Amino acid sequence: MAVVFDGDTCQLADGRRVRLAGIDAPEMAHEGRAAQYYAAAAAALLQRVTRGVPLRFVGVGPDKDRFGRMLGDLLLPDGASVAALLVGEGAAFFFWFDDVPAELAERLLLAQRRAMAAGRGAWPRLLALPRPGAPYVGNTASHRFHAPDCPDAARIGRRNRVLLPTLAEAFGRGFAPARGCTPWPEAR
């Protein structure tokens, strides 16, 4: 059983806080910022999937992140990945990080592509957002992308810069939105 804080973070019955590795979910309201679109639905899905179920934690990368959370995945009794389930339902998206095992990254990106194609969860609204006047700017080193007018986009070196005409292409290629200049909408 887990206490859920948002769509990618929970606390297990033994007190360990877990940040699901390889995914990111829309941000809940905090620090004066409004909740992002689909944040409440993502947290509710994580709660529903983990409520009253014995979970097995599988660590990934360093012991803890900068917030003191354990990094890894949670497995359901049948061995299914909670992270892959959230991505497959369109409640979270693939979030590349260099210590996420390649097999997990590939599985999550495949689940994301399928969720996008099937129009699950947040994807219909996200992929229907108006295109900006110029392409999104991706960074191949970090696998993050920026809105074209984001100051951070201008700082990406030519070697790592990739232009992504649409959100579908950006997410489909495994790029995740950068925190500072995200195209993710606020909740309605």
Characterise this structure:
This protein has 188 residues and is an alpha+beta fold. It contains 6 helices and 11 strands. Helix 2 (82-88) runs parallel beside helix 3 (102-118). The chain starts with a strand and ends in an 11-residue tail after the last strand. The model has no long low-confidence stretch (mean pLDDT 93).
Offer a quick outline of the entry:
The chain is of the alpha+beta class and 188 residues long.
Q: What is the structural class?
A: alpha+beta
Please, what is the oligomeric state? Answer: single chain
Q: How is the main sheet built?
A: 5 strands, mixed
Radius of gyration: 16 Å
Strand content: 15-25%
- Order of SSEs, N→C? EEEEHEEHEHHEEHEHE
Shape: globular
- The count of DSSP E runs of length 2 or more, i.e. the number of strands, is 11
Q: Please tally the helical runs, counting DSSP H or I stretches of 4 or more residues.
A: 6
